[in-house]
Amino acid sequence: xxxxxxxxxxxxxxxxxxxxxxxxxxxxxxxxxxxxxxxxxxxxxxxxxxxxxxxxxxxxxxxxxxxxxxxxxxxxxxxxxxxxxxxxxxxxxxxxxxxxxxxxxxxxxxxxxxxxxxxxxxxxxxxxxxxxxxxxxxxxxxxxxxxxxxxxxxxxxxxxxxxxxxxxxxxxxxxxxxxxxxxxxxxxxxxxxxxxxxxxxxxxxxxxxx
Amino acid sequence: xxxxxxxxxxxxxxxxxxxxxxxxxxxxxxxxxxxxxxxxxxxxxxxxxxxxxxxxxxxxxxxxxxxxxxxxxxxxxxxxxxxxxxxxxxxxxxxxxxxxxxxxxxxxxxxxxxxxxxxxxxxxxxxxxxxxxxxxxxxxxxxxxxxxxxxxxxxxxxxxxxxxxxxxxxxxxxxxxxxxxxxxxxxxxxxxxxxxxxxxxxxxxxxxxxxxxxxxxxxxxxxxxxxxxxxxxxxxxxxxxxxxxxxxxxxxxxxxxxxxxxxxxxxxxxxxxxxxxxxxxxxxxxxxxxxxxxxxxxxxxxxxxxxxxxxxxxxxxxxxxxxxxxxx
Lengths: 210, 328
Prior knowledge:
- Chain A: InterPro entries: Nicolin-1.
- Chain A: It comes from Hippocampus comes.
- The complex is a heterodimer.
- Chain A is α+β, with helices and mostly antiparallel strands.
- Helix content of chain A is 22%, strand content 32%.
- Chain A contains three helices and nine strands, in the order αβββββββββαα.
- In chain A, the strands form two sheets. In chain A, strands 1, 2, 3, 5, 6 and 8 form a six-stranded antiparallel beta sheet that branches. In chain A, strands 7-4-9 form a three-stranded antiparallel beta sheet.
- Chain B is 68% helix and 2% strand.
- Chain B is built from 14 helices and four strands.
């Protein structure tokens, strides 16, 4: 599992959508659209998050074909991971029609482990939208929980946040002092040394000039 | 009752004598007399008396000061407040009279002047303690009052006098100014050795007349410095691991280094946008993330050994004092 997998998702093979029709036994009449479409996705194992861009689909169901770990030899069974999740609040209107969605393993009713195939069942009962599908389907691998390295040994945790807070208070106090001193007047001290030097230079100049 | 003109040091007996005189004269304006004879005719005279004595203003002033200072001991605070008012009035009264209190000779005069200067210093410090420096306007007012108190010329008012109380040409004498600053640092819990370099930078010579701007800056800097040192002490306690005694040298240096970098980043800038940018950069250097990184590095690669509380405090103080301009 490389870093690229995590960010871009894994390429999966999407079979062309199959629209279910009813009625019209012979090839001439086309049969009515039932508003259901099925997309099969073949993917490598171990992936758990599905993201896609909606295109006027009202509801989506996810079925998984998986092989339970103990039964390697047995045939893979289909089970429903997610039933009729709404993507559009009102199937007749535009809301949610072209939004991005993601389905995580937590939202699924069964554990998506050992999955060989995913079937997305799309439903659009409204007659307003004749064509509907989902686009840009990506599957993301399972994220391993990141074990954080402790900054200090476990028995001596340092509260970095409060140390940072105190440092900021000290810095702010220093700023108060600095802004006050930019407005401070001067005592108007008469500096004897510089004046003395200047005066003697002047006198010397007077004495030595022709 | 508040009797502004005290002919003798023992104000109480004068007041009693006055009251006796007025009662025997039968005047209706004395409050003590009217208590004995209540009736509708006395209400007007009560009000007249109170407005004559200016009691409304007095009480209003006391309440305002109390709200600003929010003391834990309100009765003690009010007692101090009225005591300092009374002392101020007595002193201005005695200046008019131009009579020394203890006319024993020169040593007595010196002693009296010294005592009065000490009294003035105590009162000025009391005013400066009323509000925290973060309460800008209240603190500013108190500094003004303290400055006016300290810059009163002594009762003998001689030019070129060696009296520590007043300075010729107006302003607070350098000696009084230095004493004020030293007391402020001491009361704030800063040890003398830690505050000595700061007082060096803020120093004015004893004979100099300190103008208000310099006085205000000095007082504010000392108040802020006391807070700063207290924070540094608490910071050391935080960096210390509780069971292991003194803190690790590497951790202390890392923390102080972060503060030093932040202070250097936020040096003065001409344009407000550059200033704002530098402040953001400075705060990034002190963020928890940056601190954690710096401390891990320090633990891995830093010097071994420990740093005790005193050394930490001095190092932190040095960071602050390095940015204080020398008074000139």
